[in-house]
Amino acid sequence: MNTMDNLEKQLICPICLEMFTKPVVILPCQHNLCRKCANDVFQASNPYLPTTRSGSLTSGGRFRCPSCRHEVVLDRHGVYGLQRNLLVENIIDMFKQESSSSKPEPERKEETPMCDVHEEEKINIFCVTHGVPTCSMCKVFGAHKDCEVAPINSIYETKKTELSDGIAMMVGNNDRMQGIISQLEEACRAIEENGRRQKTLVCEKFDHLYSILEEKKREMSQKVTAEQEEKVNYIRGLTRKYGDHLEESCKIVEKGIQTMEEPEMALFLQNTKPLLKKIAEASSTAHLDKVERGYENMDHYNVDFKKESKALRGIDFIEDDDVEYEEDEAGEVEAEEGEGAQTVSGGSAVTAASVQPTPPQQINSSPSAAST
Hints:
One of its GO terms (cellular component) is nucleus. By secondary structure, this protein is mostly helical.
């Protein structure tokens, strides 16, 4: 008998808590369910999938095994695509035959509760009005004489059925909630993935903007550097000319001092004439260029990025979903070289500073208008 009891426990469906009814389907995790119970769980776990008039789902879905919580994925055939467990069905048939042929067990004497008011009376009826079990004496002479009563066995079967249906409904609701939780978790994963993808796109847009700014900075710096080198080379060349003139003047001065020491008057007069001519030539700097006042200044390369800074701070996402923006590399280069404007994806325009350096000031060779 213990063996039969253990066998019966193995043949109980975890959904309806009754012995498996044909057909019995076997899940991928090797657990068994009644096909009807499996279909109920499947529909409860996929509340958003369309169904036919008969209540079966029209497309594949998934649910969890009530025994081990393993996720079962079904195709468009639903639970009808699961394999039948013929071995379990045969065992159920053999068990029912063995149970019907065996001798009935002696009835166990169950202790019947007694009435609290009439201690010698058994509780054998049910008061429908108050919803409590009672005895016949209470119905005839007691507190329930004016109440509606019913046989306790019929109420017992009704309540047991209600309780069983409630448990089955709760199991179905739990599986349905588990399905909703799975769908919400999947939505969270999709949101995170979409967020990572959009952040990558935003970073790429900003990197492209950085590259444009770096290129523009390099171009403007090269302009300043070019004029700087031009002016420095000119000043250094002029410095060398003045140095050569100074060296020549020092030699003439030294030659003049030596001539002053000449005691012979005739020889002194012979050397004085060419020396005086050289002194006159060396005293004149008319042939040397002069630098205008302020030639060393580089203030004409002044820049002002107030408008561009305001535009950059106004960068934001496009609010109109119908606006489609495509970057044109050739157009960007043309805009940078021509209009000096760059359009960013946030809908704001960043205008590059139109810096037009003045050409180097012309050298004035007039001694009266120059200063060294």
